[in-house]
Amino acid sequence: MAFKMPTGGGGSSSGSSGGDRTTFVGVIVPRAIKNLPKYIAALPESNEVFKSILNVVVASFEGEELGDDCAVTDLCLSSSFHLYLAISGIFSCSAHQLKYLRSHAMIGLSSLVTKEVSEELLHHVFAGLHALLTAALRHPPKSFKKQHFADDLHALGLETKQATEISKVVYGAKRASIEDTHDKNAIKLPQLADFKWRVDVAISTSELQRVMKPAVLMQMTLSDGTIQTFEMPVEQFHKLRYNTAFVLKEMEDLEKRGILQQP
How many CB atoms lie within 10 A of CB 105? Predict the structure, then answer.
């Protein structure tokens, strides 16, 4: 099936939106996003199919459970779906996220297949929109102006009617539920729940009758319940104390940089 290139409100597919400013996707535009305008142009001129695909993408971000009894196992293994995974670079996501993407892509998009709209075309649009929203949602809305976002979408080749719908997701009420789902499913390291320490003095050893050397014994309890116990000489404790203070100072200096300041 031949896809026609977009005309009208589209623009360049490079990572620059004019001047020296780089678009929100970065200098190198992912292939799924770069090819998105031509696949959207192959959809029906009414914006309804595009909106339906966008809703499926948003549902996958929100992580709605569809249940394991859905008859999509064979469909999930289809060659076109694996093509979608490959072009969108989603092979690196977690198994939990992949389950959502499989179920929502196959169930949500299957009802949109017609003689004019192929399953392959739907997967390409789904892949591009998923990659686009993934890049957009990384930026806090307060630090990224809505007009700049719209300009970037136009620079990437999207027309105004599609840019408007995508902006509603990034700056609308749906964003809160997407971020809540991300926080719940994000992989997190255990945090420090409790910390105890004491100073022990070795009076003597099997080799020396008089040592009188202090050592610091530390016990850390993590949020997952594990307990880590270790001992170090006073000299090593001072190095740990210095390096910890040094890292905290570096973090404070980094947070003061203008690029990290919210307007």
Answer: 26
Instruction: For residue 253, report the phi and psi dihedrals to the nearest 5 degrees.
Output: -65, -40
Q: Is 22 helix (H, G, I), strand (E, B) or coil?
A: strand
Q: 203 near 212, Cβ under 8 Å?
A: yes
Among 5-14, 56-65, 171-180, 254-263, name the most confident range: 171-180
Residue range 91-124, pLDDT digits in tens = 344 444 545 555 555 555 666 777 788 888 888 8
Spatial contact of 102 and 63, defined as CB atoms under 8 Å apart: no
CA distance 84 to 125: 9
Residues near 181 by beta carbon (within 8 Å), at least 6 away in sequence? 61, 62, 63
Gyration radius from the chain CA atoms? 26
For residue 69, give the DSSP letter: T
Rounded CA gap, 148 and 126, in Å? Answer: 23
Whole-model pTM above 0.85? no
Q: pLDDT tens digits, residue range 29-67?
A: 888 899 999 999 988 888 888 988 888 888 878 765 544
The H-assigned helical ranges of the chain are 31-34, 36-41, 48-62, 73-76, 79-88, 95-110, 119-136, 146-155, 160-171, 174-185, 234-255
